[in-house]
# Entry
Amino acid sequence: MKLGALSLCTVVLVLSLTLLALAADRVDRAAITISSDYEFTPTNGVCSGSGTFGDPYVIADWAIDAGDNRYGIRIHGTTRPFVIRNVEVSGASSAGLSLSYVRNATIEECFLEANAAGIALNFCSFVRIARCTVETNTDGIHFFFSSENQILDSVFRDNDTAIWLDASNGNEVWGNLIQRAHMGAYLNLGSTGNSLLRNAFVDNVHNALTDEPNVWNDDVGGNYWGNFNAVDTNGDGIRDTPYPINLDGDQDALPLVGHPLVPATPPATCSP
# Structure
């Protein structure tokens, strides 16, 4: 095994063990609603932080069964930096995590399952979503009029629509696994200038659809498309044929042959 492959396996193993440990440490609690900077309090699940960039408020280590609530955590109209970390939410009739009119937030290492939407952003900017697991929701992540945000290194499985951007521009969707969705990435209502790079689209009914130009590759490469088998004649890891996104010419010009999150297909063998 090559050193790079060994390192990747080690990272995956450490990450898996870390997530298991974090999940075991979650504590059950009721839904959380914060409607101003002054409501970042221990009563509302804030366990540390002072709300500065160097010391953001931290909401962490909760397990929330939303039950009859529309939201697991709803934060509206804030400007102070905050982090939602290692939180599990299920059963929300609107969204597991709902942020509206919010800036300077981080959502990381959270688990969203069986909600109408796992994460919903409305009129938000500078929100970083990273290393989350989003499964069996109607919408995995849904942005409305939300620009300059990030969705990074997360896993989306068995959602109806994994990532849905409405009227949302300049977002970065990088390094995610998007698997077994009816629609992998849907960019609608004039969403443009978003970059979707190094993602793996696997076993989706429809991988991606956009009605405006967006960025699907840079000079190094684009995304992995699991149902796309165009050849790579020079063996550089890039397929020779662009992957079409829509009929107006949006395309991934440099589709990847493989992806670190997708096991390589074993070579064909002949039976004796």
Remarks:
- The two ends are 28 Å apart (CA to CA).
